[in-house]
């Protein structure tokens, strides 16, 4: 009899994890980890609330709210968010005191200056990543909350600021201490999570590259999820670093490994273009491609099954062997080429050209294998961290000034609107409305698509209002002590915690529900929320959140098509500046920037990308490859080994790229002309160093000719990108 419920639970739990849809599965049969998270955070919130009540704080609900706000899926995320929330709160508290002291009894000036302050904070937050961005958001709305809370009692602004900082700190401490008690083997788990992320990225890369090597042009598009997730995976390594402790550079190695995955994909595109140009490829080269494809098939499984670094070390040895063989074949072709040069017979020119093309193929293959070896090198370093390791990897994230400006303007406009409503209506709880307008507008201001990011937030506020109504009018009036208050809140909070870990869009709704439930219930020592207070406060909160979200729809609304077009203009503009030599990158920096843009396109596309989005991805990958080749040509020119005429041919190609205007085949034609001029020189050049530079330039020009021919429409930034062959004439 006892085993039947257990068997039913296990069956239902297995059904949930098998991917089948089941209504309320996250509530009926939650995963043990999700249940543990919900229980732990609920208890931490109760401890914070109980201490705040015991300390006779004026707004004890904020302590419980903070506990839910800083609680995250991983310990590293919680610690990072708690740290930056505390920093942002302290700075915001000081700023709030300064604002009210500088502008007492001046509502006409307070809101404009608050809007400028919040807008500036949100704009700068756009340039930062992870919870460093969140800290600046905290500065903006903490300042607003303190100013609005003390607007009617400016003499108490210092105590209000100190009180807010105190219960925020209390909530953070309670969550952190309780989470620390239930986080055994934290370092080991963090290392495992980092390993799983890297293995997932490597598996997707191997699948995509296999498709390209087997002449499947959509090979990379089938790795769309990988292309979109690499930047976020790189961000998540920061939290694993925190869990693994100080003096550990595993996170830097993980970011370098993920960046090498992008480079691996870019090199595979270049190799595929060379293979198409050299069709049919030499038999020995084709055999090497088959061997590498087999390696890519087996590699992810071998790494996953081996908990140590043995499989990765063995794979690196195999990759280095294949790379050595590729280099050896290139040397053998060079020797044959030089031998034919000595004979100087016109009938042998075709053989020389075949050997030259073979050297280009082997060079491209060696670069591909080098990037794969680099992926595994850094992967091994993440699994064997050493205190003597001082490796650093900086992603050099792009600073998007226009996006930052838009985010700042949205937040400023929302805060001004909230203040204006308060002034016009003279609503006693108008400050609460303005407060939550500020909280919502600043919280989501740093997102690229704030409407999508905040989609579940308003629903969560509405659900919170419904549950708080039941608690405030049915359940809590019957209670008389803190113990019964906590008992009444236990199940509603536990459900919110489980929903927070549920898959899909419900997590956004749950976040708002958990955050605002303590506020709408309003627990206090000597009173319960009465009808008048509830009907004044709760609508103000819900309306404030709704207005904050509507500000994103009305003020500079986000348009995915417009954003894609802007990204395309930025890509082409960067290529032009790189060709001029006015914008310099290392290969790793360019790949990281291009990878971020690819991820943006995928995020904007949503879950159902169309043919236009697929074309954008192909064009963005082409831009990434083109940028690498421009860097290569600049590198060749910097050696100053080529003749004046050869130098001018390559410089003319770069100049043509730098002057792209509208739809043009000029870069492709210039690349083809330069190839025709350099190829005979490479055939007759006896100086090995000059010949190597010539071959590097010819290989780059061959790919540039293909890219500017195939993607001339994408490079035309004078008009919207369109697919002429698409049945619905998709444009963006």
TrEMBL record:
GO terms for molecular function: transmembrane transporter activity. Signal peptide: none annotated. The chain crosses the membrane at residues 37-55, 84-103, 109-127, 134-151, 157-183, 457-477, 489-513, 533-556. Keywords: Cell membrane, Membrane, Transmembrane, Transmembrane helix, Transport. InterPro entries: PHBA_efflux_AaeB/fusaric-R. The keyword Transport applies. It is found in: Cell membrane. The lineage of its organism: Bacteria, Pseudomonadati, Pseudomonadota, Alphaproteobacteria, Acetobacterales. This is Fusaric acid resistance protein FusB. It is a multi-pass membrane protein. Pfam families: FUSC (PF04632). Coiled coil: none annotated.
């Amino acid at each position: 009899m006892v085993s039947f419920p257990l068997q039913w639970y296990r069956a239902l739990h297995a059904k949930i994890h098998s991917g089948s849809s089941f209504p309320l599965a996250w509530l009926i049969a939650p995963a043990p980890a999700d249940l543990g998270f919900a229980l732990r955070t609920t208890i931490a919130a109760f401890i914070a609330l109980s201490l705040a009540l015991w300390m006779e704080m004026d707004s004890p609900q904020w302590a419980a709210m903070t506990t839910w706000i800083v609680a995250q899926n991983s310990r590293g995320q919680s610690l990072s968010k708690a740290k930056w929330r505390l920093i942002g709160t302290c700075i915001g508290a000081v700023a709030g005191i300064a604002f009210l002291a500088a502008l007492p009894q001046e509502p006409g000036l307070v809101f404009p200056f608050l809007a400028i302050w919040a807008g500036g904070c949100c704009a700068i937050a756009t340039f930062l990543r992870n919870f460093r961005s969140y800290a600046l958001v905290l500065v903006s709305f903490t300042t607003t909350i303190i100013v609005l809370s003390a607007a009617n009692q400016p003499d108490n602004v210092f105590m209000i600021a100190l009180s807010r900082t105190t219960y925020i700190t209390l909530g953070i401490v309670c969550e952190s201490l309780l989470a620390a008690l239930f986080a055994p083997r934290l370092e080991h788990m963090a290392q495992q999570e980092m390993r799983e992320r890297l293995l997932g990225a490597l598996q997707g890369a191997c699948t995509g590259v296999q498709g390209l090597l087997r002449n499947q042009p959509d090979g990379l598009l089938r790795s769309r999820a990988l292309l979109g997730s690499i930047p976020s995976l790189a961000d998540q390594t920061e939290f694993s670093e925190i869990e693994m402790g100080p003096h550990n550079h595993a996170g830097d190695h993980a970011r370098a490994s993920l960046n090498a995955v992008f480079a691996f994909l870019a090199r595979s595109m270049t190799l595929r273009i060379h293979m198409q140009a050299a069709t049919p490829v030499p038999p020995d080269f084709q055999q090497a491609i088959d061997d590498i494809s087999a390696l890519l098939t087996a590699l992810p499984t071998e790494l996953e099954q081996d908990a140590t670094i043995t499989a990765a070390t063995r794979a690196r040895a195999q990759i280095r062997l294949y790379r050595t063989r590729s280099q050896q074949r290139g040397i053998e072709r060079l020797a044959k080429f030089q031998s034919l040069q000595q004979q100087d017979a016109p009938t042998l020119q075709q053989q020389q050209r075949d050997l030259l093309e073979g050297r280009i193929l082997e060079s491209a293959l060696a670069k591909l294998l080098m990037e794969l070896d680099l992926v595994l090198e850094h992967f091994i370093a993440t699994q064997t961290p050493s205190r003597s390791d001082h490796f650093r990897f900086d992603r050099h994230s792009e600073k998007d000034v226009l996006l930052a400006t838009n985010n700042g303007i949205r937040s400023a406009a929302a805060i001004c609107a909230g203040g204006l409503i308060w002034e016009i209506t003279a609503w006693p709880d108008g400050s609460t409305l303005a407060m939550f307008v500020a909280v919502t507008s600043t919280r989501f201001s740093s997102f690229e698509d704030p409407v999508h990011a905040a989609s579940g937030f308003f629903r969560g506020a509405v659900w919170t209002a419904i549950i708080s109504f039941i608690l405030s009018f049915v359940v809590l009036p019957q209670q008389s002590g803190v113990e019964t208050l906590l008992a009444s809140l236990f199940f509603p909070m536990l459900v919110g915690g489980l929903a927070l870990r549920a898959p899909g869009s419900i997590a956004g709704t749950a976040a708002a529900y958990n955050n605002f439930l303590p506020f709408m219930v309003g627990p206090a020592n000597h009173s319960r929320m009465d009808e008048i207070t509830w009907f004044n406060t709760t609508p103000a909160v819900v309306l404030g959140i709704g207005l904050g979200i509507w500000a994103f729809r009305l003020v500079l609304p986000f348009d995915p098509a417009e954003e894609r077009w802007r990204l395309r203009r930025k890509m082409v503009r960067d290529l032009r500046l790189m060709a001029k030599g006015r914008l310099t990158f290392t290969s790793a920096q360019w790949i990281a920037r291009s990878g971020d843009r690819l991820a943006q396109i995928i995020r904007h596309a949503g879950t159902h990308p169309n043919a236009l989005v697929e074309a954008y991805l192909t064009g963005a990958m082409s831009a990434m490859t083109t940028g690498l080749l421009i860097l290569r040509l600049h590198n060749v020119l910097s050696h100053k080994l080529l003749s004046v005429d050869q130098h001018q041919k390559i410089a003319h190609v770069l100049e043509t790229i730098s002057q792209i205007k509208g739809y043009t085949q000029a870069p492709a034609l210039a690349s083809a002309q330069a190839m025709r001029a350099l190829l005979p020189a490479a055939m007759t050049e006896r100086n090995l160093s000059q010949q190597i530079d010539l071959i590097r330039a010819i290989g780059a020009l061959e790919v540039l000719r293909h890219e500017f021919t195939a993607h001339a429409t994408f490079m035309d930034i004078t008009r919207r990108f369109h697919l002429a062959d698409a049945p619905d004439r998709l444009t963006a």
